[in-house]
């Protein structure tokens, strides 16, 4: 019997087209949440009357707090989903994140703001963990690359949600709401998206992931340890390294391209901050997003036609060249920079897609959630380095320094993946086994 196919993806035997469509909708909302606070929070802090110097410090603290929660909980969320199923964990994550958003602008003090941010962080850890894990369950092995490409497209489209939300305070203010009420209604709309997505996910995701007898018998701790031990497989270890740099790539691009352009526009061109954002940053960010949409499709197909290790090598090699090339930029408003950013979008999403396809291929079925949870932890460390370390490099050395750092890290992963590809090829030749792309983790 031919496998069910949807949008070119061969689905796993127990997965329906509606399951996969529901998942992509959940990805769209999950990705929208990923950047929403960074866009909405500055206006809220201003309305709350927090001093400007405190705003910067508080923003950094809250961001670091969320990444720390991710590091602590992503593995546990994955391990829990191995036991009770992906759907309840995903629904919980979407609902708690939505509730956190609704409560966030009602904080009357910094401690309350921290408490509500913790709610968002815990919900996001479950939500983001399942966003990466579910695609590995839903796609057949020969379509894993294309499935991750579709997921990346949905996630990229979700990046348009924060700017739309950011326009709402002005809309509500124009209808007579005071500034605080306008912020509260904006966050309420953002929170409603998560609650709606939770209901849709509850109705449309597959009821329960298939469990092995061993998974049912083992404790949550044993499942968590099993996921951690999966890193002994060299291809899984490579996927963790690729997760680190691919999430860092995204963080550096998101955090510093607009900042660089706004600073350059206000300092060198005499523009206001809003003019610099609209005239300089928006077109170049859109060029990066357009590249990401194209790259998601291209790498999704490539990852199904060559070995997943080779796909990681291709993506990291391209990213190494492009991110290092940022060193050559003296004027970020030059026309050629738009072309570079377009290719950067292709490179960063290719690293994202290829690393997810590799970990989905290698994750043992019994510990898939836990294994991909630790994959997410590696990505969280990459984001921390990209935002915190990148910020220091941006301020102390040059705006191009964070990009050059990740160019070097991408090159390291490129060399690692080439070495592993040769190692696996030699093993295959020596043992007369199956091709590299089919070598699975043995636990």
UniProtKB/TrEMBL annotation:
GO terms for cellular component: membrane. It comes from the Bacteria. This is D-galactonate transporter. It is found in: Membrane. The keyword NADP does not apply. GO terms for molecular function: transmembrane transporter activity. The keyword Membrane applies. Keywords: Membrane, Transmembrane, Transmembrane helix. Pfam families: MFS_1. InterPro entries: MFS, MFS_dom, MFS_trans_sf, Sugar_transporter_CS. It comes from Microbulbifer aggregans. It is a multi-pass membrane protein. Residues 19-425 form the Major facilitator superfamily (MFS) profile domain. The chain crosses the membrane at residues 20-40, 60-80, 89-107, 113-140, 152-172, 184-205, 237-261, 281-299, 311-330, 336-359, 371-395, 401-420.
